[in-house]
Specification:
This protein is an alpha/beta fold. The protein is 51% helix and 10% strand. Among the domains are: 271 residues, Rossmann fold; 59 residues, no CATH class. GO terms for molecular function: 4 iron, 4 sulfur cluster binding; metal ion binding.
Length: 496
């Protein structure tokens, strides 16, 4: 283990506050909101422009949906075919039931390579299992080579966006991070570094170059796994992935089992919808495809870790399994009004935004406060479904998960919301109770208007337990006369 300070933070997501609490704090950060609005607005505009170029965009979405559904329907067969073909091509395939098993496999492989550091390609799967933290605990340094991931790592931060992990940082903040942290873990940033994108990218390139050249092990994920050849596919925009996938002696790829596609023909469709939906480009600058090993070319030891970590549980839910169609394009984040204002960290997961609100509670369960709250982190406006390239009906899935959360909480000590709903049910079950409540409310309204508020029609706040509701909105003063009373007094409105 090197003696420099560890870079990064432990992601103790399950100890984080519920979404609503975290989002309230994020709403008070004007810099964060400005960064998010600018970045998501830019990506939305680019995406819309390249999507409009295609007359058959909806047909491509339907085809992508069908391809992913077909792959998931026979997932076991495709995974077995992938393992057989990858093994025949010289790769070694490992199966991991959960994060602990996957981390143990990777740590053992790195140790077998007799090294104490690895370079990494941007990977959501390795973030999901907290691989960097597991490697650090084993005395192994893991260096992120994606520019945004590098910013996050050097800043002791964690990602807030699927495509642009450092979307919550602006250029001035990045410059300060580079100047402060790079020297601690390698080549320092130039003393005259400015916040120009070109200069920041140059500083990162020079800092990473020495790590690329000495690394003996690289770790990646994969965007797609092709069953009929045993191939893996990674798309990226910077070239750092290409360096990791070609230079080291050993390559370890951690791949979610839902990433498998039956054939190359299926890839053709998804490679049209992915770059347009993610970066707003017609195609990715770098697309790397590898199949096992090749004598004298590239890594000579190729390992593939097929990761479950809750995915078969999601697959078993007829109403929730569509989330496994996700190709991690992040289009839903860029159109979501909730994400744009609350930021990615509020979701307490490496999968933020609308897709995180449906995927995370299924992968992790809903036993923690943060996971119980995620299905409610949405206005159900439907914009996420409109842009999803594989047509995941996230709004409907959110409603399904809200039902699950309520059902799981039945019995025992009721929450305030449950008590209020039960009281409302009792009240509405008998018209005499409802009439009595209306009369009481009318009397209360008269008192409030005459004694406290004059002509005002709204209360600034309500006493506990209703105070939680009125913190974010004005409560109307009860009317002095209910509709039922008016109807009876006017004989059904006959004198109007």
């Amino acid at each position: 283990m090197s003696d420099h300070p560890r870079v990064g933070v432990t992601k103790q997501f399950l100890g984080l506050p519920k979404f609503q609490t975290a989002a309230r704090d994020a709403l008070g950060d004007s810099v964060l909101r400005r960064n998010l609005a600018h970045a998501t607005g830019t990506i939305r505009t680019k995406r819309a422009r390249v999507v409009e170029e295609l007359d058959n965009w909806e047909q491509l979405r339907l085809a992508a949906e069908a391809i992913k559904d077909a792959a998931l329907h026979r997932l076991d067969e495709h995974l077995e075919a992938f393992e057989a073909n990858a093994t025949a091509a010289g790769a070694t395939v490992h199966w991991a039931r959960d994060a602990e098993e996957a981390n143990r496999i990777v740590v053992d492989l790195v140790r077998a390579a007799d090294t104490r550091e690895v370079v990494k390609v941007k990977s959501m799967a390795t973030q999901e299992i907290e691989l960097n933290e597991a490697l650090a605990a084993a005395g192994i340094d893991a260096w992120e080579t994606d520019l945004a991931e590098l910013i996050v790592q050097l800043g002791g931060d964690w990602p807030s966006h699927i495509l642009v992990p450092a979307i919550h940082r602006n250029r001035a903040e990045v410059r300060e991070i580079f100047l402060r942290e790079m020297a601690k873990v390698g080549r320092p940033a130039p003393e005259d570094l400015t916040d120009e994108p070109r200069r920041l990218a140059e500083a990162a390139r020079l800092h990473l170059r020495e790590k690329f050249l000495r690394a003996r092990v690289a770790i990646s994920g994969a965007n797609f796994a092709i069953a009929d050849t045993g191939s893996l596919v990674v798309v990226e925009s910077e070239g750092n992935g290409r360096m990791c996938l070609t230079l080291p002696e050993t390559l370890i790829s951690v791949v979610g089992i839902e990433k498998v596609l039956p054939s190359w023909r299926d890839l053709e469709v998804l490679m049209q919808v992915l770059p347009r939906s993610s970066t707003g480009e017609r195609e990715n600058p770098y697309t790397s495809i590898w199949t096992g090993t090749a004598d004298g070319d590239g890594p000579q030891n190729v390992h593939i870790v097929l990761l479950d970590n809750g995915r078969t549980h999601v697959l078993a839910d007829p109403k929730g399994r569509d989330a496994l169609r996700c190709i991690r394009c992040s289009a839903c984040l860029n159109v979501c009004p909730v994400y744009e204002r609350a930021g990615g960290h509020s979701y307490g997961s490496v999968y933020p935004g609308p897709i995180g609100a449906v995927l995370t509670p299924q992968l992790r369960g809903t036993s923690s406060e943060i996971d119980k709250s995620l299905p409610y982190a949405s206005s159900l406006c439907g914009a996420c479904f409109d842009v999803c390239p594989v047509r995941i009906d996230i709004p409907s899935m959110l409603v399904h998960l809200r039902t699950r959360v309520v059902d799981e909480q039945r019995g025992g000590l009721p929450s305030g919301e449950q008590a209020a709903m039960k009281a409302a049910g009792w009240l509405f079950a008998d018209h005499r109770r409802l009439e009595g409540a209306e009369k009481a409310a009318g009397i209360g309204g008269k008192v409030l208007r005459s004694k406290l508020f004059g002509s005002k029609d709204a209360l600034r706040s309500l006493p506990w337990p209703a105070s939680g509701w009125s913190q974010a909105r004005d409560a109307p003063v009860p009317p002095t006369e209910s509709f039922r009373t008016w109807w009876e007094r006017t004989d059904g409105g006959a004198d109007e």
